[in-house]
């Protein structure tokens, strides 16, 4: 507590951990590459240097504020240093800005422009390193890396996966994987949080846009889209809308313009997941199986993490396939039955997630050699497609989803946010259809942005303990507590990305806690506006259970012989 | 045998002293890295063999009850230029450049007949210096920290105790409170010998104040400056001195364990420390309830993995933890969160080696040496174009002139002194105008240099200062951890520019760019190593700007160091046209008619110098 004098302005501070936070509070923009409020302080880019009244320079990200401290943020000296640092970074950088996908949203480019670097006095002497685009989700281009270490810390500190680290030293320093392997050959879970924090084009989403165009142009293909819940509250950011603005109707309109034949909502798949998972949980509780708790299985990054790190827990992971895969399988099955022509059905999933690309490509997600989901494009990729085709998103008239899956329940939509799966499952259990029941569930403690949430609810006279985590590092510490016997749960919902799918790596950037909070608000708003609250009340779902699923319910589950 | 308490320590010490006194003569063969490389271990073996053959009793480990001849592998005696060295006590003869063939004489004459072997002694101006202490190299030195180096068996616990070792520990543990020990170090104003010169006592008392059950003492033995080997010599020659200092630090700060981080390139130091720690444990000096004081402490050795940057405190602790050795931002400081995020005392080897002396003799005694703000002595490794290279120790504040000319014996081959690089790649160079400068923390800081760990590289008039700057920049760039932008990218670009300059491709603008880069790096780099990375360039630019200008404007290197700038010419008046030069030229750059002056085609010439050597008439020269 106290005050500081920043550039002559008196600023009060409270519990800000560093001077940088106070400076930003004062409305002064100080450029940074390696500072993220959600990651540990690294202090390597040296851009946030400030000068105290004695002329000493220090980084504001790593210095705590002191009462009465007087600092300056933009002296000639500091401006000169910042310029030199950028010039040094640019000298070593792949300078093909005009063709770089990140152009226009690249932090290096933005800051270089801001600090006024107009000329680079050094030669470009860096050797060209190979680009790793072998994996399903992320493309890593070390030539564009500025070695800020954000990805290293995101992988380490948010996910506890740690497949990226520094190697070599001096000007040979690199961010790389163990033994320089490709990302898909190490324990990367494809969550893509590395690319969320990457300031440049060094880590990018692996695009499947071209495959989507190919399918759309092929007359022998029926291209069916499914749109995940989290996409609708984020895509607008690409077009200048506020985070959390619900754009579902516009997305449908855009997809029709792009030539999609049928457009559905993945929330229907989520409804199926809710019913299947809720019954699996009840079944386990009633049988008093000692393989408790049941872990959710819908997050593919979590699923891969569990397979790699906790093979012993795989029995506890729900047998349900994810909404994307359930819905993919159902769509293919439905169209096979009702189809009158011999067009090939191609399912394109529009996802907030990079790991979904990997999930769709997993061998167990194909039946008879045909993938249930053929193409996965992220929110960002869809935005690119919209732009490439000259569609003015903001001016689109909202359009409605196609039948036979044209209904969406609120329970399905809230899958997009951490705690949503648990809440949807609880709605399924509580049969009284009153507003107060729903309110009771939402206040049970499973909503919110905390990394670990816990709730105890009563179902049929039983106390059911529910744990909700996001961030795999949080999941790991919860697992440790469960294994040690410090905690007991019946159900644990795990989402790899901060805030759940709304914070997925396929979503627009920048992403921070503020953006995620707004997106979550959008999801709950969509739930509020939905006339159907529960999964089992969705007529599309009822139709399925009375239709194709009567004989083929197994397509909703993972099968032992499919596990690899 | 465990020494359980005060009485047992006194008894052990008494017994050891008597055993040491029974050695009629002591033969100390230098077993520091330099002399070992010169074959001193073979000399040690040969001497031992000869002693036995002559029927004398060779006492290796103070193990005999009878009078004998002690033969020991000692630490570095310091006079490395003259190694392998053998010292004979009680006469204090120092034999230089001893070979296997000299052993017989040493045994016959000195050990059996008490006669010196004069041909092995230092002589100058027709004077033979018999006693080591009279040799000019030693005469002006004050060996306190290095006292045991070269005068005891570096591998013997008993001998260390016999020479008064672990008395300071006894005093601290049994007669002083932790705060008193800290106060004693504060009063002595002992400043860290690792480079920064931060008062050690202040650091200790800060750690003592930390409320933590676990605290650590870490000894930085990651000496990496080119040309510096003080810490190595202390670790090799007096390992117990460091251990004693660390245990006292542990007691003073209520720490639980110690770590010595030694670079892996110092295998002998690691080995001697390992032996010393083993015997200290065996005697109960390390372990539980040391001397029945209730204080428990143990020390582990960590070998570095070859990164210079691990000499930086936070990189060092990260390396011990098994992480990549990269400095981190501060705060928190090491005294608050050091090793494994626990309060940590981190001092370097020489600092710890000073501690027992201060505790044993008192801080007032200590302040009797050196200057007011830099008390005590400082060890330096003096190398380069100087006659007496080696390890020296002088009181802080000794003039640079004395060190280079009196102790160092002046410049080799009668050349002129040009500069001395002090403090390694983080330091700066001092020139003739600084010869009267007292060597202490503050005086050096004022002129933009630093004591650093204490490397002194002396350079003569034939040294190209631009090339010196390039050499150090190359080192820094290779050794930068790469974490922060200014150090990683800045040093790379500075090196690039310096390479251009020595290759004749530099411009005047390059000098401005060098200065701009130096300013940015010094003010924005993350750690101390980065902040000082530009120092060699800054100081050479300051004192030898004319050399830089000569390189970039005249495209000349007057010391003929930078080959790219040199050109080889044939003086037509002297050339007899013998064609020898053209025949040895590997690139056919020389042509001419026999008996007429030959000429060199500059565009073809690779400046290898073969023609220079081949010419019988001295008609070819480098310009």
Automatic annotation (TrEMBL), chain A:
InterPro entries: 2Fe-2S_ferredoxin-like_sf, 2Fe-2S_ferredoxin-type, 4Fe4S_Fe-S-bd, 4Fe4S_Fe_S_CS, Cytosolic_Fe-S_CAF, Fe_hydrogenase, Fe_hydrogenase_lsu_C, Fe_hydrogenase_ssu. It comes from the Bacteria. It is found in: Membrane. Keywords: 2Fe-2S, 4Fe-4S, Iron, Iron-sulfur, Membrane, Metal-binding, NAD, Repeat, Translocase. Residues 136-166, 179-208 form the 4Fe-4S ferredoxin-type domain. The keyword Repeat applies. GO terms for molecular function: 2 iron, 2 sulfur cluster binding; 4 iron, 4 sulfur cluster binding; ferredoxin hydrogenase activity; iron ion binding; NADH dehydrogenase (ubiquinone) activity. PROSITE patterns: 2FE2S_FER_2, 4FE4S_FER_1, 4FE4S_FER_2, 4FE4S_HC3, COMPLEX1_75K_1. One of its GO terms (biological process) is ATP synthesis coupled electron transport. GO terms for cellular component: membrane. Residues 1-77 form the 2Fe-2S ferredoxin-type domain. Its cofactor is [4Fe-4S] cluster; [2Fe-2S] cluster. Residues 77-116 form the 4Fe-4S His(Cys)3-ligated-type domain. NCBIfam families: FeFe_hydrog_A. PANTHER family: NITRATE, FORMATE, IRON DEHYDROGENASE. Belongs to the complex I 75 kDa subunit family. This is Iron-only hydrogenase group A. The lineage of its organism: Bacteria, Bacillati, Bacillota, Clostridia, Eubacteriales.
TrEMBL record, chain B:
The keyword Iron applies. Pfam families: Complex1_51K (PF01512), Fer4_10 (PF13237), NADH_4Fe-4S (PF10589), SLBB (PF10531). Coiled coil: none annotated. It comes from the Bacteria. Keywords: 4Fe-4S, Iron, Iron-sulfur, Metal-binding, Ubiquinone. SMART domains: NADH_4Fe-4S. Residues 566-595, 596-623 form the 4Fe-4S ferredoxin-type domain. InterPro entries: 4Fe4S_Fe-S-bd (IPR017896), 4Fe4S_Fe_S_CS (IPR017900), NADH-UbQ_OxRdtase_51kDa_CS (IPR001949), Nuo51_FMN-bd (IPR011538), Nuo51_FMN-bd_sf (IPR037225), Nuop51_4Fe4S-bd (IPR019575), Nuop51_4Fe4S-bd_sf (IPR037207), Soluble_ligand-bd (IPR019554). The keyword Chloroplast does not apply. PROSITE patterns: 4FE4S_FER_1, 4FE4S_FER_2, COMPLEX1_51K_2. One of its GO terms (molecular function) is 4 iron, 4 sulfur cluster binding. Belongs to the complex I 51 kDa subunit family. PANTHER family: NADH-QUINONE OXIDOREDUCTASE SUBUNIT F. This is NADH:ubiquinone oxidoreductase subunit F (NADH-binding).
């Amino acid at each position: 507590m106290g005050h500081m004098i920043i550039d002559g302005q008196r600023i009060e501070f409270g519990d800000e951990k560093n001077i940088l936070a106070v400076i930003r509070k004062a409305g002064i923009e100080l450029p940074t590459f390696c500072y993220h409020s959600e990651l540990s302080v690294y202090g390597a880019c040296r851009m946030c240097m400030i000068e105290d009244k004695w002329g000493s320079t220090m980084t504001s990200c790593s210095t705590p504020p002191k009462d009465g401290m007087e600092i300056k943020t933009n002296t000639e000296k500091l401006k000169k240093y910042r310029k030199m640092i950028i010039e040094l970074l640019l000298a070593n950088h792949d300078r093909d800005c005009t063709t770089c996908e990140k152009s226009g949203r690249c932090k290096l480019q933005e800051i270089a422009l801001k600090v006024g670097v107009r000329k680079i006095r050094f030669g470009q002497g860096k050797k060209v390193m190979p680009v790793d685009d072998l994996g399903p989700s992320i493309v890593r281009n070390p030539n564009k890396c500025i070695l800020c270490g954000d990805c290293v810390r995101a992988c380490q500190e948010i996910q506890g996966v740690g497949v990226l680290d520094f190697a070599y030293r001096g000007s040979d320093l690199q961010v790389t994987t163990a033994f320089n392997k490709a990302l898909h050959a190490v324990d990367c879970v494809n969550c893509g949080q590395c690319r969320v924090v990457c300031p440049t084009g060094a880590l990018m989403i692996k695009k499947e846009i071209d495959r989507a165009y190919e399918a759309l142009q092929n007359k022998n293909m029926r291209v069916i889209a499914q749109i995940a819940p989290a996409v609708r509250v984020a895509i607008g950011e690409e077009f200048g809308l506020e985070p959390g603005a619900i754009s579902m109707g516009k997305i449908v309109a855009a997809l029709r313009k792009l030539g999609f034949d049928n457009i559905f909502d993945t929330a229907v798949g989520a409804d199926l997941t809710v019913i299947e998972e809720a019954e699996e949980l009840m079944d386990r509780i009633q049988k008093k199986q000692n393989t408790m708790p049941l872990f959710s299985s819908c997050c593919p990054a979590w699923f891969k993490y569990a397979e790699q790190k906790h093979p012993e827990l795989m029995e506890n992971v729900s047998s349900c396939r994810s909404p994307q895969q359930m819905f993919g399988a159902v769509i293919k099955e439905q169209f096979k039955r009702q189809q009158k022509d011999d067009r090939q059905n191609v399912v394109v999933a529009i996802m907030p997630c990079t790991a979904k690309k990997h999930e769709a490509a997993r061998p167990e997600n194909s039946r008879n050699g045909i993938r249930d989901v053929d193409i996965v494009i992220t929110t960002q990729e869809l935005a690119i497609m919209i732009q490439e085709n000259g569609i003015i998103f903001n001016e689109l008239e909202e359009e409605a989803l196609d039948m036979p899956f044209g209904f969406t329940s609120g329970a399905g939509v809230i899958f997009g946010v951490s705690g949503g799966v648990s809440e949807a499952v609880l709605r399924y259990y509580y049969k009284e259809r009153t507003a107060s029941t729903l309110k009771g569930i939402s206040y049970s403690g499973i909503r919110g942005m905390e990394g670990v949430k816990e709730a105890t609810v009563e179902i049929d006279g039983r106390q059911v303990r529910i744990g909700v985590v996001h961030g795999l590092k949080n999941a790991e510490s919860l697992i440790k507590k469960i294994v040690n016997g410090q905690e007991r749960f019946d159900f644990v919902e795990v989402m790899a990305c901060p805030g759940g799918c709304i914070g997925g790596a396929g979503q627009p950037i920048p992403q921070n806690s503020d953006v995620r909070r707004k997106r979550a608000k959008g999801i709950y708003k969509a739930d509020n506006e939905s006339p159907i609250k529960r999964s089992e009340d969705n007529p599309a779902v009822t139709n399925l259970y009375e239709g194709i699923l009567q004989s083929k319910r197994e397509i909703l589950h993972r099968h032992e012989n499919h596990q690899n | 045998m465990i020494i359980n308490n005060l009485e047992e320590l006194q008894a052990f010490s008494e017994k050891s002293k008597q055993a040491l006194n029974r050695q009629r003569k002591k033969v100390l063969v230098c077993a520091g890295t330099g002399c070992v490389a010169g074959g001193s271990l073979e000399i040690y073996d040969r001497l031992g063999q000869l002693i036995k053959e002559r029927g004398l009793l060779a006492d290796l480990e103070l193990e005999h009850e009878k009078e004998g001849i002690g033969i020991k592998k000692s630490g570095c005696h310091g006079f490395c230029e003259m190694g392998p060295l053998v010292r004979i006590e009680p006469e204090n003869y120092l034999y230089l450049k001893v070979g296997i063939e000299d052993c017989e004489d040493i045994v016959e004459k000195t050990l059996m007949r008490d006669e010196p072997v004069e041909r092995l002694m230092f002589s100058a101006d027709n004077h033979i210096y018999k006693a080591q202490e009279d040799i000019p190299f030693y005469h002006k030195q004050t060996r306190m920290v290095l006292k045991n180096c070269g005068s005891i068996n570096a591998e013997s616990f008993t001998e260390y105790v016999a020479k008064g070792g672990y008395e300071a520990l006894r005093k601290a543990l049994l007669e002083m409170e932790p705060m008193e020990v800290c106060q004693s170090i504060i009063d002595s104003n002992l400043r860290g010998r690792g480079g920064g010169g931060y008062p050690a006592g202040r650091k200790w008392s800060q750690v003592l104040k930390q409320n933590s059950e676990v605290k650590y003492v870490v000894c930085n033995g990651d000496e990496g400056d080119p040309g510096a080997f003080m810490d190595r010599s202390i670790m090799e020659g007096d390992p117990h001195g460091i251990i004693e200092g660390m245990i006292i630090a542990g007691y003073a700060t209520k720490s639980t364990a110690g770590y010595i981080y030694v670079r892996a390139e110092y295998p002998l130091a690691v080995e001697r420390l390992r032996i010393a720690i083993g015997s200290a444990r065996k005697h109960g000096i390390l372990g539980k309830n040391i001397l029945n004081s209730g204080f428990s402490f143990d020390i582990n050795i960590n070998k570095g993995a070859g990164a210079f940057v691990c000499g930086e405190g936070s990189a060092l602790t990260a390396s011990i933890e098994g992480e990549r050795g990269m400095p981190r931002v501060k705060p928190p400081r090491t005294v608050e969160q050091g090793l494994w995020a626990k309060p940590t005392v981190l001092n370097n080897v020489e600092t710890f080696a000073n501690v027992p002396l201060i505790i044993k003799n008192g801080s007032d005694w200590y302040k009797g040496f050196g200057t007011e703000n830099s008390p005590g002595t400082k060890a330096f490794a003096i190398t380069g174009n100087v006659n007496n290279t080696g390890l020296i120790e002088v009181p802080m504040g000794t003039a640079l002139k004395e060190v280079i000319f009196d102790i160092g014996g002046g410049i080799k081959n009668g050349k002129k002194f040009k500069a001395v690089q002090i403090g390694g790649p983080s330091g700066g160079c001092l020139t003739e105008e600084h010869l009267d400068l007292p060597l202490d923390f503050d005086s050096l800081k004022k002129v933009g240099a630093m004591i650093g760990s204490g490397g002194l590289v002396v350079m003569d008039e034939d040294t190209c200062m631009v090339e010196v700057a390039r050499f150090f920049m190359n080192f820094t760039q290779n050794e930068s951890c790469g974490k922060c932008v200014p150090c990683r990218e800045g040093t790379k670009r500075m090196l690039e520019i310096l390479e251009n300059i020595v290759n004749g491709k530099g411009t005047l603008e390059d000098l401005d760019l060098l200065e701009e880069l130096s300013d940015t790096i010094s003010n924005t780099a993350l750690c101390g190593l980065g902040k000082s990375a530009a120092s060699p360039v800054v100081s050479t630019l300051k004192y030898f700007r004319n050399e830089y200008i000569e390189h970039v404007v005249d495209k000349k290197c007057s010391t003929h160091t930078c080959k790219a700038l040199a050109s080889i010419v044939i003086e037509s008046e002297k050339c007899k046209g013998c064609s020898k030069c053209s025949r040895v030229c590997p690139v056919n750059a020389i042509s001419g008619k026999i008996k007429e002056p030959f000429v060199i085609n500059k565009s073809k010439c690779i400046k290898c110098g073969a023609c220079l050597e081949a010419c019988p008439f001295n008609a070819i020269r480098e310009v």
